[in-house]
Each structure stands twice: as C-alpha cells, then as structure tokens.
Write a structure and sequence with these properties.
Elements: H1 8-21, E1 28-31, E2 37-39, E3 42-43, H2 50-56, E4 64-68, E5 71-76, H3 81-87, H4 92-99, E6 103-106, H5 107-118, E7 123-126, E8 133-134, E9 139-140, H6 144-155, E10 160-163, H7 165-173, H8 177-197, H9 200-203, H10 209-222, E11 227-228, E12 233-236, E13 257-262, E14 264-266, E15 269-270, E16 273-278, H11 284-303, H12 310-327, H13 336-340, E17 370-373, E18 376-379, E19 384-387, E20 390-394, E21 399-401
Amino acid sequence: MDKAIFTSEFFAGNRARLRELFTGKAPIVLTANGQLQRGADSVFPFQQDATFWYLTGCEEPDVVLVLDKDKEYFIVPGRDDTRTTFDGAIDTAEIARISGIKTVLAGDSGWKQLANRLHKVKHVATLPAAPEFIEQYGMYTNPARRRLIRKMKAENSNLELLDISQHLARMRMTKQPPEIAAIRQAITITLESLKETLSPAKRGKYAYEYAIEAELSRAFRLKGARGHAFDPIVASGERACVLHNVANNGPLAADELVLCDVGAEYQHYAADITRTVALGTPSKRQEAVFAAVHEVQAYAKSLLKPGVLLKEYEKQVELYMGEKLRELGLIKTIDHDSVRAYYPHATSHFMGLNVHDVGDYDRPLEPGLVLTVEPGIYIPAEGIGVRIEDDALITADGIEILSDALPAKLR
C-alpha cells in the first residue's frame, strides 16, 4: 500500500471547519459504525462511517467522538480478553496519532464524562439515525447512530437533537487536495485494471461474467486498492439492462456486449467507471446504440461548469437523449416517460468517500466537486445495454475528466 496521504492535520482541519459552520454551543457527539453480523459469530468486513472517518481517520467500530467547547475526546469501547485474543486490542495510541485527538477515554470513564455534560444541556448536535429499514433500497441500516441516540436519551430524556448533516454534507461536497489525490489514484487503478482485463487479446478467453470480475478484483488489490468501492457490475446481453446486476454469473457470448461498471477504493475514496465493450465483432445496431450513448455523454460533459444546476442539466441531457432515441427508432415523441423507458437513471451523481456521495443537488456546481457523467441506453427486447461513465472534477472554468486515460471504445 502506498504511503498514507491523509495526515492528522487533514482530520483536525475538518473538525475545525465543522466548529466554524456549527455556531451553536451544544456539544457535538458522533459515532463510528458498528460491525454487522454475517452469520453465526462471523461479521461482514467492517466499513467505517464515512463522515466519522472524515473527521477522525479512526478505523475502529463503536468509537464515539465528542467535540465540546474547546475539548475533544474519544470514548473507546472495552473488549474482553476473548475478543482481544481473536480481534486484537484497540490501539488507542494509533487512534490519537492519526486523528490528532490526544484524549482517548475508556468506555465507562468516557461515558461518565459525557453523561455529566448531557445532564446540564438542552441540546446535543449529532447525525440523525437512518430508518431501520429503507424500503426503496430493500436494506437494513447500521444501528450505531440509533444506539448512540438511545444512550444519550437515557442520560437525559429531555435532550433535543440538532441535525448537523447539512453542515457535513456541505463540507464533504468540495474536495480538498488530498481527497482529489486519492480519487485520482482510485481512478488510475480502475482504468489500468480495466485496460488489462478487457484488452482485445483477453476478451475471447472469458466464458462467464465472474471471470472478468475475478480479474478486476485481482488487479485492484495488486495495484494497491483496498478492493471494490461498490459491488462490481459485469453484465452482458440482456442482463446489462438491469442497472445493478451484481450477480455476475451469466455466460458470455461473442455476439453480445459486456458492460463493466466498477471502481477501486483507495484510502477510502472511490472511483466509478463504466466501459461497454464488444466480445466479438459488434453488429451495426450495437455500434449505433454505443455511438448514441457516446454522443450524449459528450454533450453532457459540454454542459458542466461552475454555476450549473444539476436539475436543469439533467433536463437538457434528457432532451438530447430523446433525440438520439428517436434517431434509433426507439421512440416517436420526445417526452419524459418515453425517454425514461430506455434511460431510467440520472446522468450524474457526486462521488467521494461514498461512490454515491453526499451533496446538495439544489446548489449550483462549484470548483472542487467530483461527479460522474454516465448516460446509458437499455433495450431489453434487443439484448443491448450500453453505459459509458467517466468521473469529472469541476474546475474554475469547466471540468477536468479524471478518467480520460482510457477512452470509451466498443472494440
């Protein structure tokens, strides 16, 4: 792994900025994520809460951060001898070193100090807990924030919570130089791995989608990435029309296109790149659909610059996509429902610590934002799904395409 590019100064600076944005006098209390059960006594690989890491650099679960007036300290949970034997002891010296927070308190003494403060205040600033289950995504959420709020309310049932999520989202939107450096490296690893894995000489050797996924996973790790920033999508033929087809177990055929939507994670930061390639000689229809997506992407890139509102940008891209869909004979009239039948997702999303990063979509774009540009056309009846995705940095006068080292080509 390359030398860490995030120092204690980075995390301390983020905490200082949060104190400036949050002008209230209430203590700020935030929690790390907790571990999640995979089965029996095994857990899923731990993923730290992105905002908690952004403020501390701490990689341990269940740690609590307190920012109170001129004080800042951690509350670190205890571990019994059995767990320490299997998982190791929590390295409090390392937590203090990387975060720049000198005071690290054990669970009981830390909570006693926080409880004394909670009994004297009316408000505490924190991040709200997500619903236990998010119906839209069909997923359960990490319970750590709910647990923290319950513990604080147990100390003071009249405590009122102040939501600081907007402050933190605003901070995380604009990327600092170390963040941009990490994103660049994540993108470089992703592009190099895609170039190697999908080289014309190798494409015909893969029999199943998972073989491509395995090669990408191997390349990511060998090049210094932590792994995938999100579940990789390797989908061919009609399966490419399912936007998040992560099974990656279908057979590959020479007359189909294969869509690879992948991104390496480097020092917590994500890349998000999609390339669609032909496994054999593409048909004229496949070439026409690919060309249409490529033209829409070029148009979308031409619109991006400081001051642009993403909602207006999406409307413009939708209209241009409608023209291309009409040229392909897929629709007769350009309207929202007709276009979205073949292009059912947004063109751009923010990217950073999470591949779908926090951000204010109602705020004009400004320098330092990183976002994707990813139009696509999906025609299940024809077994054709094409998406092309690049990552862009908003600059003072336009954009820099961070992923232009690997041009999108069908062959």
